């Protein structure tokens, strides 16, 4: 057990104090909560806040209607199903032709999965290739040059960092050297 020294130099065991009780609050006998008529005092006001005097508040309330009482229970949001016109067309306005970049894509069922590869293009001196448009040229040349090493797999490339194939590429280390002669940067 822990001991402390008293003022005379002797040691005595450390005692725990009993928990403090809030004697200034009366408890409701039904649920152990403070009685509604005895609330704790409000916190002090900050120095930059000016309190409203009760007379001013009463005069202001005469000119403005009182605010509505808060709802006792939040209302459930109503959901309405929007009906479509029976013929599928609207009745007002004029039809317009809309061009969108969404296309229907059909893929043959396959046992294989789509694979995503991170593309990291670097020059011979290990500096990253950051020029736009070079990535497509490099990957086109890669596909042409290493078609058999890629198991004749076609791929989709986003022009920056992502390449997708159907099924995995056969090599574990997919590093390839591609030489482009017609790049204007000289690297």
From TrEMBL:
User: Residues in domain Protein argonaute N-terminal?
Assistant: 94-182
- Write out the biased-composition intervals (Low complexity): 51-63
Region (Disordered), start-end ranges: 1-94
Biased-composition ranges for Pro residues? 39-49, 64-74
Organism superkingdom: Eukaryota
- Composition skew (Basic residues), residue ranges: 12-24
Spell out the InterPro entries in the cross-references. Answer: Argonaute_N
Which PANTHER family does the record cross-reference, listed alphabetically?
EUKARYOTIC TRANSLATION INITIATION FACTOR 2C (PTHR22891)
For this entry, the protein name equals Protein argonaute N-terminal domain-containing protein
